Amino acid sequence: ASCKSRQPNWQRMEEGSDHSDSDSPGDSLRDIQDISLNLKLSLDVGNTLDGTLDSEQVATNAKKKLEASVSKLSKPMEKAQDDVFNLKFPAIRRRKYVFVIAVDCVATSDLLQIIKSVFSAAGEQRAAGSFGFILSTALTLSEVNSLLEAGGLSPADFDAFICNSGSELYYSSTGSEENYAGSPFVLDEDYHSHIDYRWGAEGLRRTLLRWTASVNEKKGANAGQTVSEDEYISSDHCYAFKVNDFTSMPPVKELRKLMRIQGLRCHIICCQNGSRLNVIPVLASRSQALRYLYVRWGTELSNFVVFIGEWGDTDYEGLLGGIHKTVMLKGTCGDARKLHANRTYPLEHVKSLDINNLVQTEGCDPSDLKTSLRKLGILKP
């Protein structure tokens, strides 16, 4: 059955396509029930939730903040949408397989080593253009750019970048069929428009600030801040918070429950080994970004090969399920184990480790990765 889009903004650009906006496959991405959205309860006794800003003011503030956060590295806002449209057939559409590197290493050197090992394991297929690459991370675009520079890598080595835990999606302009002068990153504004649906924006931010104040107050004035807003790395669709003392912070599930009570829909992700909280729209996630690429560009999900660590950010479990292929790097991201200490279910309930499209490596060397890719049928024996 065809789902009707609530906010049709785009359609897949394929030669000879007769799809109309009303039948756009983007509708299924926004298929979410709208229950509890009108629930408004007080966070603090005597205070009411003041998250009902004038809609025009919210839209204006959001647009200004987005322009400021993106303009440093991505293309100017008035050109970004045209660039994505003009890509038409980005390099990712020509790939036989797409390798998604989603290993949540904190140390730059560790992540660079894994990236280079994946490149090396791809071998001649990478040079021939049969394999494409996506970097999926909790880092900001600025941090990703610094990472690439530190490792001597180029944005053209990747087809796309999923940043801020899935709240931002960029393409490599130098890796597309058409080369654009200026910035090597092209922002996908259609993705931004999609995840903006039911996003709490400034009202959500103020609620989060009151929560951080209550957490810090419980610890005491002389004990220092447990958690604080990190305005420098926050963006229009990702409110970032610096966690100075992870052991003193309440469990993330309590914050998620609090946001649901307030009627504020969002994803709260603990990342960087517990040193950062990313709060992003409920329709945004690293796994959702992959689904968006399938709907937007027709890249089959079964042709995605996702590389993840044995542990990771609190959203890494979302990368386990699905029809895509998964390579789990044993022995990596062990420090992130503490982020899942409150998990009340075994990992096997999320993804069976005995199925054919998930394999575990014995190490992170190119030879180990090649062995795993052969088991998945990606490389020839």
TrEMBL record:
Biased composition (Polar residues): 1-10
Superkingdom of the source species: Eukaryota
Listed Basic and acidic residues bias regions: 12-29
Pfam families: S6PP
Region feature Disordered, mapped onto this chain: 1-29
Keyword annotations of the record: Glycosyltransferase, Transferase
The name this protein goes by in its record: Sucrose phosphatase-like domain-containing protein
